[in-house]
Design a protein that fits this description.
The chain is built from 13 helices and eleven strands. The protein has about 350 residues and is an alpha/beta fold. A seven-stranded mixed β-sheet has the order 3-2-1-4-9-6-10, with helices on both faces. Strands 5-11-7-8 form a four-stranded mixed β-sheet. The longest helix has 22 residues.
Length: about 350
């Protein structure tokens, strides 16, 4: 096992306040055969300088890459994955950290179960003071697959990602739901290891909690183009098309609900109409989709299934646009009801 390299990929953006804690948690791992790939996405603070300093201190462990143009976390992940040398890959958010034994324990488990493509570990959500908000554990692989949509807190076989051409959407937000569609149709063989010592930091100033304050130009276009690319690059079965269309609908709902809580009525109307027209044109399988159900997909959170069913009911009743206009006016109150991924 000691010869297996684990590539740890971290996308950085304005991370000067927490990059050292993040990277130190990797350097302190009890398993030493790791490479740390840091990608700076055009930060405007001292992130890049800190990256260079840490690389100079640990040149055998840290590799750095950067762009002077803001291309989004998805682009950084894809770029680093193409440079990675490890047999296994761990993705991390820039403000998160892991227990010192995380890599060793999870890798040992993976090596004992070599037939599996991804190990899901669960995670612990903490605030920026380190106080625990909740611990996410999974009873079975269906729950893990559909309740751990972000890319973190799981160990991937790199060859599985390459073989299935699994890449992130190159945007700034919502890329995890989009990625999930491509992941599911690749039918990964997954296993759950109850070791939730990946620490997901809820940082109110991070991208995921600030970008959602307004609709971002080009997000819908990039996101639907990404999903269309998945549909077109493979000869998909009807069920796989339904899965992709389910996630296109899921993405649309989550985007409008999360971001639409802070927008003007005219902005919501424009974004809604763009989204629905695209769904009806390019993802027609969302109509009557068996995955939009209170009973499917297996393992998904009940609140997610309920909300998607509710929104689909409004769509069928031709009341959905009216609902989202109302939501734009009152969404700051209702936004908290929509669950975290």
């Amino acid at each position: 096992m000691m010869n297996k390299v684990v590539s740890i990929i971290v996308g950085e953006y304005n991370s000067e306040s927490f990059i050292e804690k993040n990277v130190r948690s990797l350097l302190n791992q009890t398993y030493k055969n790791i490479e740390i790939l840091l990608y700076d996405d055009a930060s405007t603070d001292l992130t890049r300088e800190i990256m260079k300093k840490m690389q100079a201190e640990f040149p055998d462990k840290i590799r750095i890459f950067y762009s002077d143009e803001n291309k989004g976390v998805g682009y950084g992940r894809n770029y680093c994955l193409a440079q990675a040398k490890g047999e296994y890959v761990l993705f991390m958010d820039h403000d998160d950290y892991i227990h010192d034994s995380y890599v060793e324990r999870v890798l040992k488990f993976a090596e004992k179960n070599p037939d599996y493509d991804i190990v899901y570990t669960g995670f612990t959500s903490v605030d920026d003071t380190g106080k625990i908000r909740y611990i996410r554990r999974f009873k079975n692989k269906e729950m893990a697959l559909r309740q751990s949509i972000p890319l973190f807190a799981k160990l991937y076989k790199r060859q599985f990602l390459i073989k299935n051409q699994l890449k992130s959407c190159e945007g700034r937000v919502i890329e995890d739901i989009l990625y999930q569609g491509g992941l599911e149709i690749s039918t990964p063989n997954i296993i759950v290891y109850d070791y939730p010592f990946y620490y997901y930091v809820f940082n109110r100033k991070s991208i995921k909690n600030t970008v959602f304050l307004k609709f971002q130009e080009g997000i819908l276009e990039k996101s639907y183009k990404y999903l269309k690319g998945i549909k077109q690059k493979k000869a998909l079965t009807q069920e796989q098309k339904q899965v992709i269309s389910y996630y296109s609908f899921y993405f649309t709902c989550w985007y409008l609900l999360k971001t639409g809580a802070y927008v003007k009525e005219e902005d919501m109307r424009r974004e809604y109409q763009t989204a629905i027209k695209t769904l009806e044109k390019d993802f027609v399988e969302f109509r009557g989709n068996p995955y939009i159900s209170l009973f499917r997909p297996k393992g998904a959170k009940l609140i997610v299934r309920f909300v998607l069913c509710f929104i689909y009911f409004l769509y069928q009743a031709k009341l959905l646009e009216m609902f989202f206009i109302f939501y734009a006016k009152n969404g700051r109150f209702f936004r908290r009801l929509w669950p975290e991924l």
